Amino acid sequence: MDNLISRIIWLFLQPSNLFFILFLIGLILVWKNRRRAGLSILTTCAIFYGMVMFGPLTSWLMAPLEKRFSSYTNHVGDAPYSGIIVLAGAERLNLSTKHNQVTLTGAAERLIQATKLARQFPDLPIIYSGGGQIKNMLSENAIARKYFTEAGIDLSRIRFEDKSYNTHSNALETKKHIQQHETGGRETGKWLLVTSAFHMPRAVGAYRSAHINIQPYPVDYRSYLKTSLINKPNAGRGLYQLDFAMHEWVGLLAYYVSGRNEEIFPAPED
Q1: Listed residue (166, 183, 170, 186) closest to 251, CA to CA
Q2: In three state form, how does the secondary structure of 28-86 look?
Q3: Has residue 177 got a pLDDT over 70?
Q4: Domain check: are 63 and 77 in the same one?
Q5: Are residues 79 and 134 in the same domain?
Q6: Residues 6 or more apart in contact with residue 215 via CB below 8 angstroms
Q7: Does residue 156 share a domain with residue 125?
Q8: Phi, psi of 104 (to 5 degrees)
Q9: pLDDT level of residue 57 (50, 70, 90 thresholds)
């Protein structure tokens, strides 16, 4: 139920949706002869659209998220590791089902880099955490299973966690898998955590709260890790990236307020 409520709230807070809602309200006010209020809202929409189109708003929100754990990019120098945790979210369920072929989103690096790590550490177990499922469609795990098979990774190494529905439950369900299956110190050992760079702060907070010893392995970068006042105009791309960035900032605040994360903006440990 809480997941459904959060999705409904996000439907209205998502910047690309909110922009349209405000634009529509502005037009209605103008039509209702409340020109001053309507034009004020439309002007705000125009300014917002310009800031998204030329990039500053998106980069201001995305870059700090991705920079937070960027020092761990490609870093695997703290071995030994107990295993590899990969968060789902790169799978296109409808298209993969329709074409019976692995079809991925812009977060495909989660799977690509997980494959790289699986080959680099052939003895490590892998937990793939993703419960995304739509009726009559392939699940996130089914698509990932197909991907790893085609990539030549031994599926006996991979445990597919299929009960989670958000980052918080990813961590809790992963904890159960570690406790149920691991011996030889792996329960308290260090696990590589693979997810998108912009998602890493919230994921780190969730896994720390679940008392899982993780080392971030950020992938799927969307920015150059710095803010800028002007970029090449691209409103479509700007809105698309802004939705992801805003979702994470709202998620970080919500997780902290609800007690799911102990830190509002988790940082690398000393």
Answers
A1: 166
A2: HHHHCCCHHHHHHHHHHHHHHHHHHHCCHHHHHHHHHHHHCCHHHCCCCCCCCCCEEEE
A3: yes
A4: no
A5: yes
A6: 72, 75, 78, 81, 190, 191, 192, 193
A7: yes
A8: -120, 160
A9: confident
Q: Is residue 264 part of a domain?
A: no
Going by C-alpha positions, the residue among 101, 86, 58 that lies closest to residue 153 is 86
Task: Write out the residue range of the structural domain in which residue 32 sits.
Answer: 2-67+232-257
Is the pLDDT at 10 greater than 70? The verdict is yes
Q: CA-to-CA distance for 73 and 223, rounded, in angstroms?
A: 14
| Buried b or exposed e, range 136-173, using 16+ CB within 10 angstroms | ebbbbbbbbbbbbeeeebeeebbbbbbebbbbbbbbbb
Higher pLDDT among residues 7 and 144, named by residue: 144
Per the CB < 8 A criterion, the answer to whether 115 and 144 are in contact is no
- Average pLDDT on 113-117 reads 98
What pLDDT, in 10s, does the model give residues 208-241?
A: 999 999 999 999 999 999 887 777 888 888 999 9
Q: How far apart are CA 33 and CA 36, in angstroms?
A: 9
> Are residues 79 and 204 both part of a single domain?
yes
Residues 212 and 86 in one domain: yes
Tell me how many domains the chain contains. 2
Q: Let me know if residue 262 belongs to a domain.
A: no
pLDDT for 117 = 98
Could you tell me which residues come within 8 angstroms of residue 100 by beta carbon, excluding any fewer than 6 positions away?
none
CA–CA separation, 230 and 270 (whole Å): 35
Identify the H or E element spanning 246: helix 235-257
- Residue 267 forms part of a structural domain: no
Instruction: Tell me, yes or no, whether 177 and 247 share the same domain.
Output: no
Q: Are residues 80 and 152 in the same domain?
A: yes
